[in-house]
């Protein structure tokens, strides 16, 4: 169970970068570097909503229970979704093996 890390460029953001950590125990950590924003959520609370050229990733912050929204390019959102699904599978496999 290794945490996966990805860097993406936010669409229409004047070059803002987002760092995303996908933790196989079911946790997503998001940092928008330039604005110093931090979001986190459990996988179960993350949704993907396609809207034209972008996909909005939405979740509920674990600590303050606030809803957050992160626009990503559609290809980046598909990659993130695949990484979350793979992390879920890895965690389920580990739990079965224990």
Proportion of strand residues: 35-45%
- Provide the gyration radius in Å: 13 Å
Determine the mean pLDDT.
Answer: 92
CATH topology: PH-domain like
Estimate the global geometry from the Cα principal axes. globular
How does this structure look, described?
By secondary structure, the chain is of the alpha+beta class. About 25% of the residues lie in helices and about 45% in strands. The protein is built from 1 helix and 7 strands, in the order βββββββα. It has one helix at about 75-95, and strands at about 5-10, 15-25, 25-30, 35-40, 45-50, 55-60, 65-75. The strands form 2 sheets. The protein has a 4-stranded antiparallel beta sheet, with helices on one face. Strands 5-6-7 form a 3-stranded antiparallel beta sheet. The longest helix has 24 residues, at about 75-95. The mean pLDDT is about 90.
